[in-house]
């Protein structure tokens, strides 16, 4: 067996661990629970134990391992220092060095959204492109910017926080964002935001819509109804697309990517959603940017593991 690399995607509930070849093929993967008790002090130990067990079970040695990459849900500096991860209970420490000491192989770490974007650039929807913006539309709105095949991380790893761009007009602002601000893109473009916009439509307007018949509205309900031609649902999707398209036009004016890749659970709406976002993007974009390509992400939940491994294999 040739040399392998581990890609580790740390979430608040589970840690996804992938084994990748030097060429980026995902050979194996599994999950372990994220133990966040006692300030998350067991997380890296559990990862190291799991990796070492896999290596031993396969009859390999740690000398067969090139290294490990790690995606972390918080800002990470270029040397692998995490700057507080509330979901994990972590404060400020060099998580890359800590895991490297446990494993005895090189470890690189990055913000999870940035790392997932790198995965999509390397082996996913952005494959073959070196300059792209990746947007993940899920419970929140995440993002990552890849320029010249490298993550644009910023001074403390907080670059690419697309979901917290202040773009929402006062009349559309829905409470306070999880970050503590108001008017964030995440409040209208995430699955949660779509539901809130739909509830506002149902409760505050007389617009005809089949959404009124539902006891509980999901983002999928809204998108499915919109695709079926429901006027109220279409208006919700178009409002979401307006804000997302505006934000992407602003981002493109700064970084001028070849491509924008849309992922996350909301992206399961497929080409319909891509078309709506692009329709909103074009009139807002600088004329030289209007031909920016749009594509769907393809790696799903594997993006973080693939991108994490790429950190080491670059």
TL;DR?
With 314 residues, the protein is α/β, with parallel strands linked by helices.
Describe, in plain words, how this protein is organized in 3D:
The protein is an alpha/beta fold. Helices cover 37% and strands 22% of the residues. The chain has helices at 37-40, 43-57, 95-103, 112-123, 186-189, 191-204, 219-227, 231-255, 271-284, 303-313; strands at residues 4-10, 14-21, 26-33, 65-72, 81-85, 90-94, 107-111, 132-137, 141-147, 150-151, 259-263, 293-296. It has a 5-stranded mixed beta sheet. Strands 10-9-8-11-12 form a 5-stranded mixed beta sheet, with helices on both faces. A two-stranded antiparallel ribbon has the order 5-6. Strand 11, helix 9 and strand 12 (293-296) form a beta-alpha-beta unit. The mean pLDDT is 94.
Low-confidence stretches: none
Please give the largest β-sheet.
5 strands, mixed
Structural class: alpha/beta
Shape: globular
Q: Residue-averaged pLDDT, rounded?
A: 94
Order of helices and strands: EEEHHEEEHEHEEEHHHHEHEH
Q: Largest sheet, order of strands side by side?
A: 3-2-1-4-7
Separation, N- and C-terminal Cα atoms: 21 Å
Radius of gyration: 20 Å
Q: How many strands?
A: 12
Strand content is 15-25%
Number of helical elements: 10
Helix percent band:
25-40%
Features:
five-stranded mixed β-sheet, 314 residues, alpha/beta, globular
